[in-house]
Amino acid sequence: MRTVGEVAGLAGVSVRTLHHYDELGLVVPSARSDAGYRLYDHADLERLQEVLTLRALGLSLAEIAVLLDDPTHDRLQVLRDQAKRLRDERDRLGDLLAAVEGAIAAHDRGEPQEDITMFDGNDHEAYAREAEERWGDTEAYRQSQQRMAALGEDATATVERWWSQHFGQFAALRRDDVPLDDERVRAAVADHRALLNRFYDCGPAMHRSLADMYVADERFRASYDRHAEGLAQYVHDAVHLHADAV
To answer: Is the pTM here over 0.85, yes or no?
Structure first.
């Protein structure tokens, strides 16, 4: 049996996160010490491993709870599915890294990069397919499709401008180390909610779930952190603090 502190150290998460998972019934420790402290056995660690891997793949805690508590849940098959998705993402990132390194090498040589390799790893259609597979049957997805279509031919440029403003607003706060409870941070969270509402109706629970994805999915984390160090975590914490107040 391991204590909550030991498990937190092994898994690379905070004790607060483990307490949260326990409160949600997502990873409930199998025992308590005589003093009432949480104790985890190996089966608990296996469940935590699944939760953290699924979070890293972008699933919300609610989605994970439904999956793991399904009576037909097959842990081995889920692990195999996770492994395939991770291999696919590893290969895509490998191609993307090669393309970026190729661009750097071509620049250093004073030569143009080969057209045929410039866009390796940039499979934006794959993201669209993934979004449709995961959320295509939801009202939010249908709303986003309708509202994007309503933007017309300039939709892509318009959306890129909106998100650029969002990243810039939060990056400035992060670089200045503005405390999370500052009114400017609360205003930024409100602006973020307003941005999301341009695509679909977003309430506090969905807002927090999206913020969870910003830190759990490496693709989202990288998108934020390239604007300011630790920005994904900063936005996540800001949304969780202010989501019910904006």
So the answer is: no
